[in-house]
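Re-run with default settings, no changes from the original entry. Doing this only to confirm the output is reproducible before filing.
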Amino acid sequence: MTDSLETARHPETLKRVCIEPLTRVEGHGKVTLLLDDDNRVRQARLHVVEFRGFERFIQGRPYWELPVLVQRLCGICPVSHHLAAAKACDQLVGVDVLTPTAEKVRRLMHLGQVLQSHALNFFHLSSPDLLFGVDDPVAHRNIVGLIQDHPEIAKQGVLLRKFGQEVIRITAGKRVHGTGALPGGINKHVSAQERDLLQADIDQVCNWAEGAVQLMKRIILRNPEYHYRFGAVDANTLSLIRPDGAFELYDGGLRVRGPQGDTLMDHQDCNNYEQLIQEEVKDWSYMKFPFLTQLGPECGWYRVGPLARVNNCDCFHTPLAEQERQDFAAAGEGRPLQAALATHWARLIELLHCAELIRELLADPDLQGTDLRLSGAMRSKGIGVVEAPRGTLFHHYEIDGDGLVTRANLIVSTTNNNQAMNTAIRQVAADYLSGRELTEPLLNQIEVAIRAYDPCLSCATHALGRMPLDIELQDAAGLTLDRLYRHPDGRLGRSPVLDS
């Protein structure tokens, strides 16, 4: 990848190709490619063009509304926002350790969320590309084609997601935008009848999850050179980790490893995230660009999500997922796997781990406990961090003496992956598109790389300062009479009125 691909010189002289909208992702975004006369790609950028101001309009709201309010960011991963906000609110109400019942019900809720989201991404959104190939006709390369050609795989994907949604319904009250987590705990336990309902299906769910991992391994081994190279970018990786270095989704410290697998930071307190991470703003996207403070914006960007988590952890505490992790690690031959499509392999190992942990938790009598909620001395700041399906999610709130929010900061998973996604599409553009006549299958490869990150674009969009704005006044004939524009830094400008 060359510098010219990252920042095109004299972009006004280049041809522009736009992929809009991006398909089979949550939210709205686009990719622009700038090409020279020989069809060589000089610039490739992922633009997030939505804007949602949650950090601003929750200011002035009472803190106890936050776990229910902020999950409206998304209908795909609301549980992740629900729990991250609840963890931040735990700190606000002076609770550092939940009751066993509250923590285990929350963990069960989170496992259901990750399981259903991973099933959705792999079976519904990504498997058509993986099973049919990127050159398959677009009319067939979709979920309908999957149902026609691979009905059993499609059925398993639907039922896996349905099971995860049932876990969410039982623990949160609703499948989407539930109310199960409260500051300091939860509002209901899992009854014996609800436990029995889930236990009736969990063995089959584990079998399907293990079969999904084997399916992905077969896909990769069918063409390993391509699957290990496509969208491969050497990235730092960030994730939560248990005190013993094991895989973790709900709680723990932060671990960062370098592209070669060397540990840069370990067991860092999430409450210190503002010292560890900073965010850069660029004028061509509403999504910010986080980076590690100690490495700076050029070298400090990082990847989060399934690929980062499986590369980062030392082990899984469930036997089937641990065996698959060992096979995954062996494929890297001593260094972390960095290819975009390896993310799907990691994602399905996580799905299997979630199924195994759900089976363990359902046998725990603490789920039927009645000690649900604690409280303590109020605090002015709370920070909650979880591993959402797409990666590490930060919620940070500050309140005044009346319990009203005075400051909010959210760094969502897709924002953490912003630079990694941009770098991946540049790699794909340079290796597979540059110098060729662009066709739909070739352009789809850009989307395949993005879909591997399972981006949630509506969650990720916010900006620092003022949004850029460009307003033109035209007459009935289309002649521009006046133009007012605002730069990203808030400065206003006006273009001269054109002569008629």
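The chain has a mean pLDDT of 90. The chain has three domains: 1-49+430-464, 54-429, 471-500.
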